Amino acid sequence: MAAGLLLLRLGLSCLLSSGVGGLGGEFSPGHSAGSLPAAAAAVERRYLLYDVNPPEGFNLRRDVYIRMASLLKTLQKSSDWALVLPPWGRLYHWQSPDIHQVRIPWSEFFDVDSLSKNIPVIEYEEFLAESGGPFIEQVYVLQGYAEGWKEGTWEEKVDQRPCIDQLMYSEDKHGYYRGWFWGYEETRGLNVSCLSVQGSASIMAPILLENTTARSIMLDRAENLLHDHYAGRDYWNTRRSMVFTKHLRLVGDEFRASFLQSSDENDKTIFHEDWIKVKQRPSTPLGGPYLGVHLRRKDFIWGHREDVPTLHRTAEEIHSLLKKLQLKKVFIATDADRQDLEELRKLIPEMVRFESTWEELELYKDGGVAIIDQWICAHARYFIGTSVSTFSFRIHEEREILGFDPKTTYNRFCGDKEKNCEQPTHWKIVY
Ligand SMILES: Nc1nc2c(ncn2[C@@H]2O[C@H](COP(=O)(O)OP(=O)(O)OP(=O)(O)O)[C@@H](O)[C@H]2O)c(=O)[nH]1
Ligand SMILES: *[C@@H]1O[C@H](CO)[C@@H](O)[C@H](O)[C@H]1NC(C)=O
Ligand SMILES: *[C@@H]1O[C@H](CO)[C@@H](O)[C@H](O)[C@H]1NC(C)=O
């Protein structure tokens, strides 16, 4: 189960076929830019849109963005494309009541100028304005192969196939397709069809370039595509371009200063907003004088996973780390429910948390609060997270970008009775 889970969480194909290291490697499009007619440059730009399976959370979606960005880079080699940023909303975990949490533009969470230095991106509302209305010419719903794959015979492929699951789109009386479309009810799809895919994101390039002339193409269930090259330079460039929006970073920094005696100057955590100018790993920072912890609870404990510890065991581990690291403070980011929080407070009286007021929550939204938590964990002297949580993975990456010693980053809690408690993999940053 663990390998399958990790596969989805990382979007890696190489975990499936042992010994084939080059799988999911760089893709070369069917034809080079040079073979295109000269007039191609004058053709209007085309739009790539995408969405992800509704139950998937914020941090897996951030990973799918990286996969789509590499597809876009492949498309760019042949013609002019822009990636349309799928508005945030209706996420299963964003359940704070009475707060409007749909149609949230990316600019609420990420610095769009920084994203633009990696690939051409536009917000959905810009797409509506630019493309002349709420129409998406072609929707491809991505799915696996009904017959599955045969063990050991991994090949990359994509084929038009009948839809396996019930289509989440329905035809209206004008023959247009209606669907979720990120909460934009007026949006219509002109054509919806299903594609079975097995492979990395860029296997879609020939289809988008050669099999359709649609100017706007949406890939739904885009998480079915894997990474072109996980943790390579292209991956890290896209990851580094995903700079959190400034106001959220500032809230995190103010919290560090007020409650954790932590400042960039003292901690030697230098963050360059203009990521493109950073050409090498920064010198190793010290980090703030606190232990950073991410405790994923909720659905991670409902399944009684053996790699997730009890709160009692968690508290023991935290206290032993504080002693070993000679730290007094522990910052805890968690999705724990009220009851768990009360118990945590008893077990770890020195716990520091970012607790937002209703007004703050309304302003930053659940996604913003999660980012603030991640930002604070990313600046800690030492971090320990939860096994196979993409929320924790994104903190690893943020610390890798800041240049932390991997020993202080790639750590996770072990289940109370876990025998082989393998620690997270160090994915080394590449510039
Ligand atoms: N503020 C905050 N929110 C959290 C924390 N841990 C989990 N969450 C919330 O719960 C969500 C995590 O659950 P999911 O929706 O399953 O997905 P995910 O973001 O891909 O992350 P994982 O499930 O942990 O792999 C996050 O997106 C947050 O909204 C935390 O430490 N702080
Ligand atoms: C794309 O076009 C090629 C050539 O016409 C065809 O063989 C292939 O089946 C098409 N693929 C899809 C997914 O439509
Ligand atoms: C819809 O798209 C599919 C895949 O490109 C194509 O085979 C089909 O002919 C299209 N249908 C219409 C009505 O255009």
Automatic annotation (TrEMBL):
GO CC, any one term: Golgi apparatus
Record localization: Endoplasmic reticulum; Golgi apparatus
Keyword Signal found: yes
Any Pfam family hit: O-FucT
Reaction it catalyzes: L-threonyl-[protein] + GDP-beta-L-fucose = 3-O-(alpha-L-fucosyl)-L-threonyl-[protein] + GDP + H(+); L-seryl-[protein] + GDP-beta-L-fucose = 3-O-(alpha-L-fucosyl)-L-seryl-[protein] + GDP + H(+)
Keyword Signal: yes
Gene Ontology biological-process entries: fucose metabolic process
EC number per UniProt: 2.4.1.221
Highest taxon of the lineage: Eukaryota
Entry function: Catalyzes the reaction that attaches fucose through an O-glycosidic linkage to a conserved serine or threonine residue in the consensus sequence C1-X-X-S/T-C2 of thrombospondin type I repeats (TSRs) where C1 and C2 are the first and second cysteines of the repeat, respectively. O-fucosylates members of several protein families including the ADAMTS, the thrombospondin (TSP) and spondin families. Required for the proper secretion of ADAMTS family members such as ADAMTSL1 and ADAMTS13.
Protein name: GDP-fucose protein O-fucosyltransferase 2
Taxon lineage: Eukaryota, Metazoa, Chordata, Craniata, Vertebrata
